[in-house]
């Protein structure tokens, strides 16, 4: 790997870390400034009282497609923004997963699993830190967004490979 390739890969990893920071800031903290001491107290309280965590889990949405269906029926601006936003915010995740793991030959199933696990991590953090509600529909929408991003990456990668193949096949033989 040459120096320019290393710089590009380091830049991609840096942008991914920044994206993850923004993702956490939006999903967990709703762009608010939250003190680490507050988070520690929330986590300590949750771990000290697991029954309360279970009760909070039950007050969240555990029924797949409940909120999605409600959004489609009501079509308020806020609910539609929430629905589209939950998909859109994970599209870059799928793109990054495709880019960073392309040499390993990542599949759509692997991208789905990575997206699901990242979303589950964030939803669980909301539950344990008591700073949001657990919502299975967010898992579905985020995972779908990750897959959309992965498929965008796949289409672009296929177009690049096709263009490169065209370039090499059009060169005159020596």
UniProtKB/TrEMBL annotation:
Keywords: Membrane, Transmembrane, Transmembrane helix
Domain VanZ-like residues, every copy: 16-156
Pfam families: VanZ (PF04892)
Record PANTHER family: INTEGRAL MEMBRANE PROTEIN, MEMBRANE PROTEIN-RELATED
Origin species: Paenibacillus brevis
Domain of life: Bacteria
Protein name: VanZ family protein
Membrane found in the keyword field: yes
Entry's transmembrane regions: 12-34, 80-101, 108-127, 139-160
């Amino acid at each position: 790997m040459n120096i320019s390739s290393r710089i590009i890969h380091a830049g991609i990893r840096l942008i991914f870390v920044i994206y993850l920071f923004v993702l956490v800031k939006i999903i967990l903290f709703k762009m608010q400034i939250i003190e680490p001491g507050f988070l520690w107290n929330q986590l300590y309280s949750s771990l000290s009282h697991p029954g309360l965590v279970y009760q909070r889990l039950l007050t969240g949405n555990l029924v797949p497609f409940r909120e999605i269906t409600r959004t489609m029926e009501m079509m308020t601006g806020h609910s539609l923004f929430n629905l589209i936003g939950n998909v859109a915010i994970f599209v870059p995740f799928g793109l990054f997963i495709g880019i960073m793991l392309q040499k390993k030959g990542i599949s759509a199933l692997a991208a789905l699993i990575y997206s699901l696990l990242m979303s589950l991590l964030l939803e669980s953090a909301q539950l344990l830190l008591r700073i949001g509600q657990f919502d299975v529909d967010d898992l579905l929408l985020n995972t779908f967004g990750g897959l959309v991003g992965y498929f965008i990456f796949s289409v672009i990668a296929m177009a690049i490979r096709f263009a490169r193949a065209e370039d090499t096949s059009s060169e005159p033989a020596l």
